[in-house]
Amino acid sequence: MRKKVLPDLANVAILIQIAALLAGCDKTNTTGSVDNDAVLAGNLVGKWKSGNDWKIQFNSDGTFADTIINRSFPDTTKVLFTEVFAGKYSIQNSVLSYYEYHHQRLPDSMEFGGSYEWLNNLEIQVNGDILSCTPVSILSPALANNVTLDGTWNELVWAHTHLGFPTPGVYDGWFRLTYTFNKDSLSYTQTFGYADSAGGITTKAGYTYTPPTLTLSSVFRYRVEFKNGKMYWYSPPPSSVLYRIR
């Protein structure tokens, strides 16, 4: 599985930190790894799969279709529903990002209002017929050239949302996650809201930071790197890979 899900906006402070459901992949460089973005994009085009229940198709025009079969448990022979995300993708600094996508559940079923879900950024490598990937959140500093955790950082995500009462419906668009870290109090504030408007839901919690490890709310742990003028949060393993479909 490979998406973040927020079933209840009221609990967004906890849930938007859910460790990436898309399992991270081994990102160790090996012979034949492709680092150049243009070449990497060319090698990515095609169909990929992980097991029998997850397939992704990347097209040369920058569009994709991501399909996953959800099964019951413990009887995994029963298919509950199939999810399809379809939209656009881009690659920058070896990071695969999804945007302008729509979500479809087959067969159609009612989805809970107030839920938010999005596909994770992935730092990727293509080695022959193996696609390896690592979930990563990329945050931009409010002040240029900030290379410390302190201060304010923003992450933009394209999310598919199921709006609840009083205005039920569906919204697809950009959301902004803003984090402000205060090293003196070892606390941070987090705001989640629409990218094109001010405000949102803001909460406060504690954190610990022993470089390179950042722990939020005593639960969510990330490996932090500063590069390309931004801050990268890498989710921990387990690992998995996708294989090209010939």
Quaternary state reads single chain
Figure out the total of helices: 2
Q: What is the β-strand count? A: 17
Give the CA-based shape: globular
Strand portion: over 45%
Radius of gyration, Cα only, in angstroms?
A: 18 Å
Low-confidence stretches: 3-34
* SS class: mainly beta
Please summarize the sheet with the most strands: 17 strands, antiparallel
SSE string, helix = H, strand = E? EHHEEEEEEEEEEEEEEEE
Helix content: under 10%
Please give the domain count: 1
Termini separation: 22 Å
* pLDDT averaged residue by residue: 82
Give the SSE layout.
Blueprint: E1 3-6, H1 12-15, H2 37-44, E2 46-50, E3 54-58, E4 63-71, E5 79-92, E6 95-106, E7 115-119, E8 121-127, E9 130-141, E10 151-163, E11 169-182, E12 187-194, E13 201-210, E14 213-216, E15 220-227, E16 230-234, E17 241-244
Antiparallel strand pairs: 1-7, 2-3, 2-17, 3-4, 4-5, 5-6, 6-8, 7-10, 8-9, 9-10, 9-16, 9-17, 10-11, 11-12, 12-13, 13-14, 14-15, 15-16
Q: Can you offer a commentary on this structure?
A:
With 246 residues, this protein is mostly beta strands. It has one domain. 5% of the residues lie in helices and 57% in strands. The protein has helices at 12-15, 37-44; strands spanning 3-6, 46-50, 54-58, 63-71, 79-92, 95-106, 115-119, 121-127, 130-141, 151-163, 169-182, 187-194, 201-210, 213-216, 220-227, 230-234, 241-244. The chain has a 17-stranded antiparallel beta sheet that branches. 23% of the residues are buried.
